DNA sequence: TTCCGACAGTGGGGTCGCAAT
DNA sequence: ATTGCGACCCCACTATCGGAA
């Protein structure tokens, strides 16, 4: 029953101890029907078996009156969401609304709350996939490492969890790398400098250009090529150049990891916005391709030479990649133990218009789906001193605190300020409390109950990765990945950086 | 007893496709 | 033609728990 999940979710939300959350989840998994295990695992880790159903915050605004008695089964809810997802074409939004109202009208208040959070992608129970892995292991009586390994190869915990619950450790060991089915890609940790990155790894390392495009995983089985994104979406039809490039390789049994991006004729990369737009284009790929051709650069191989390579050291995987792929399709790379060489390579990458580098251990295996310690990204960091123009009330654990800052640069021509974006990042609890008090003291002007306008007096030092063209902000520019470094109590607003300075960074 | 790896949470800008206006 | 919504591309950072050292 859905109510069982809602109750478990409430119990999981109630405390902060992870072991207690695991115990609650495992208890539920211990009594779920086998044919509903997949749904239960998905829901309680914040996922939908359908991945998405076209329902977001707006569609969930005013739910109908709840029922008093809980009657909905997991299967019923799942089937109704299938029907919601299937609705398309003219009039579908009205029909969708009706179906959703029917569904929510059949639920109790507790069930409504659970389903709303689930559909919004904000379960906020302090437990998602990472905790659910442990719960599955506990409920199935198998080591968590076995669940993780199967998940790495299958990429979808509900399927892995259901198998573990019904078939135990043997069922888990039956999962293997399947060409044509994506593996969660390995992610990188970050460091502030090449020196710090080398320090974390120790010994010689590979330094690779970090290209600012879209992460892809390319599979080839015989003549069949498939391409997947970081979240395992199939984008094969959107990247024909990549399909052709992989199809032309001598080997017909491959799983490759790389980055796709749009390059300019002069050999420099297009801004991320251009690559992103091209990769997202689905309606007229041929035309999009003519306007913005894509290039691909590989940096790892998960399968080649007729063998799975995940467990091999990075260096061995790279050697296999180099045997399978011509050099022009590989990410520029330098192996060194000399920090100065690494720094020079990093500078060269940035000078060539790229994001930075990833410093990689030569030893570690491919940590699929994890932020492995073996890969460390390093990017240059820009900073500006900007003025707080307004601030938004936070939600969740930031409820009651002023959180999201509206940032402005000085405009000497008008004597005013030009908004460049917002940020909520980099704030400690202490700083959140401080800025709430400080900003309320200088609140002035319109407020909509969500955004508090303040007198432009407070200067804050902001780090960011770069500037990008913006149609949202009046200055035509916005900051990318802005975060707070510190408040500049030593500076007044008329000493803040100007919008011209920001624009000059766009070149 | 202290340290640190892994997670979850809190949101940021931009783009596309689709349905409604 | 424009607007709003949902989905997904890129993502940084802090707090916390609990196992490792």
From TrEMBL:
Give the top-level enzyme category.
ligase
* Reaction catalysis annotation: ATP + (deoxyribonucleotide)n-3'-hydroxyl + 5'-phospho-(deoxyribonucleotide)m = (deoxyribonucleotide)n+m + AMP + diphosphate
Per the UniProt entry, the Enzyme Commission number(s) are: 6.5.1.1
This protein's source sits in the domain of life called Bacteria
What is its biological role?
DNA ligase that seals nicks in double-stranded DNA during DNA replication, DNA recombination and DNA repair.
* Cofactor section: Mg(2+)
What Pfam families does UniProt report for this protein, alphabetically?
DNA_ligase_A_C, DNA_ligase_A_M, DNA_ligase_A_N
Q: What is this protein called?
A: Probable DNA ligase
Report residues binding ATP: 208, 215, 230, 259, 299, 371, 377
What protein family is recorded? Belongs to the ATP-dependent DNA ligase family.
Alphabetical list of InterPro entries matching this protein: ATP-dep_DNA_ligase, DNA_ligae_ATP-dep_bac/arc, DNA_ligase_ATP-dep, DNA_ligase_ATP-dep_C, DNA_ligase_ATP-dep_cent, DNA_ligase_ATP-dep_CS, DNA_ligase_ATP-dep_N, DNA_ligase_N_sf
Residue ranges occupied by any ATP-dependent DNA ligase family profile domain in the UniProt entry = 287-411
What's one GO MF term for it?
ligase activity
**Sorted alphabetically, which CDD domains does this protein's record hold?**
Adenylation_DNA_ligase_Arch_LigB, OBF_DNA_ligase_Arch_LigB
Concerning HAMAP family, the annotation shows:
DNA_ligase
Positions annotated as active site in the UniProt record = 210 (n6-amp-lysine intermediate)
Keyword annotations = ATP-binding, Cell cycle, Cell division, DNA damage, DNA recombination, DNA repair, DNA replication, Ligase, Magnesium, Metal-binding, Nucleotide-binding
């Amino acid at each position: 029953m859905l109510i069982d999940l809602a109750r478990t979710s409430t119990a999981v939300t109630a405390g902060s101890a992870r072991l207690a959350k695991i115990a609650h989840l495992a208890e539920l998994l211990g009594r779920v029907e086998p044919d509903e295990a997949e749904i239960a695992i998905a829901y309680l880790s914040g996922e939908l078996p359908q991945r998405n159903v076209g329902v977001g915050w707006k569609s969930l605004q005013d739910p109908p009156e709840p029922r008093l008695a809980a009657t909905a089964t997991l299967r019923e809810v799942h089937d109704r969401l299938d029907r919601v997802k299937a609705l398309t074409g003219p009039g579908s939004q009205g029909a969708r609304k009706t179906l959703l109202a029917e569904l929510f009208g059949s639920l109790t208040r507790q069930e409504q709350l659970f389903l709303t959070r689930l559909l919004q992608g904000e379960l906020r129970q302090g437990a998602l996939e990472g905790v659910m892995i442990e719960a599955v292991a506990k409920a199935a009586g198998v080591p968590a490492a076995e669940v993780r390994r199967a998940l790495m190869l299958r990429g979808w915990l509900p399927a892995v969890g259901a198998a573990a619950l019904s078939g135990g450790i043997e069922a888990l060991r039956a999962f293997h790398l399947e060409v044509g089915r994506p593996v969660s890609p390995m992610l990188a940790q970050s460091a502030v400098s090449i020196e710090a990155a080398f320090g974390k790894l120790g010994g010689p390392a590979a330094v690779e250009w970090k290209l600012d495009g879209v992460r892809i995983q390319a599979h080839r089985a015989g003549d069949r090529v498939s391409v997947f994104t970081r979240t395992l979406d199939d984008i094969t039809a959107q990247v024909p150049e990549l399909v052709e490039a992989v199809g032309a390789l001598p080997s017909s049994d491959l799983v490759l990891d790389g980055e796709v991006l749009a390059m300019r004729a002069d050999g420099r990369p297009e801004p991320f916005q251009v690559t992103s737009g091209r990769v997202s284009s689905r309606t007229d790929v041929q035309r999009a391709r003519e306007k913005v051709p894509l290039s691909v650069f590989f940096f790892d191989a998960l399968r080649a030479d007729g063998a799975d390579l995940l467990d091999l050291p990075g260096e061995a995987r790279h050697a296999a990649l180099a045997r399978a792929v011509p050099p022009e399709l590989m990410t520029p790379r330098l192996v060194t133990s000399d920090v100065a060489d690494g720094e020079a390579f990093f500078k060269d990458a940035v000078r060539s218009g790229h994001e930075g580098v990833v410093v990689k251990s030569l030893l570690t295996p491919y940590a699929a789906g994890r932020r492995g310690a073996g890969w460390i990204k390093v990017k240059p960091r820009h900073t500006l001193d900007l003025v707080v123009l307004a601030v938004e009330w936070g939600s969740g654990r930031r409820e009651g605190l002023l959180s999201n800052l509206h940032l402005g640069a000085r405009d000497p021509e008008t004597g005013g300020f030009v908004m460049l974006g917002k940020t909520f990042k980099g704030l400690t609890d202490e700083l959140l409390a401080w800025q709430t008090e400080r900003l309320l003291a200088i609140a002035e002007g319109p407020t909509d109950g969500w955004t508090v306008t303040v007198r432009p007096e407070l200067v804050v030092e902001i780090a960011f990765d770069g500037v990008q063209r913006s149609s949202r902000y009046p200055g035509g520019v916005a900051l990318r990945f802005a975060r707070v470094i510190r408040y500049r109590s030593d500076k007044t607003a008329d000493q803040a950086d100007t919008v011209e300075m920001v624009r000059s960074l766009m070149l």
